[in-house]
Amino acid sequence: MRRGTPSARLSELGLKLPPVSPAKGSYVPAVAAGDFLFVSGQIPMTGGEVVVTGRVGDQVSVEVAAGLSRQCALAALAAADAAVGLDRILRVVKVVGYVSSAPGFTSQADVVNGASDLLCEVFGAAGRHARTSIGVAVLPLNAPVEIELTLHIDT
Hints:
Number of domains: 1
CATH superfamily: RutC-like
Helix content: 25-40%
Shape: globular
Distance between the termini: 19 Å
Strand content: 25-35%
CATH class: Alpha Beta
Oligomer: single chain
Radius of gyration: 15 Å
Structural class: alpha+beta
Strand order of the largest sheet: 1-2-7-5-6
Number of helices: 3
């Protein structure tokens, strides 16, 4: 592991990539196309099970959901690592965060900051990205948050 690489930075942060969650449908965790890697939406899972369920602003607090968002981003990096290797990632281009939201809940951006902050910690300036935070009525397996990534990779 070379100094200054995303793998080295994860280690410095005391973080480990989780096992890649198997797809729960007819898709793959990540697809490379040219200089880009598209990582499927990741929900907060451990051992194949969603760790927390429910809507943010009702059963799940913003703080808990932001932590789950961070966990989703780490899972997305695990999928990227399995697909092309973490150290081939040159830049985080776009993050899309879906937040299962209680009626009237409007702090989706605060939830998705958990993922954004992790990516900036791991990639530094190359982790700053465009982003969309979307409130939805429900997510697969009643997960509170789902994060997908678009990454620029070294080919």
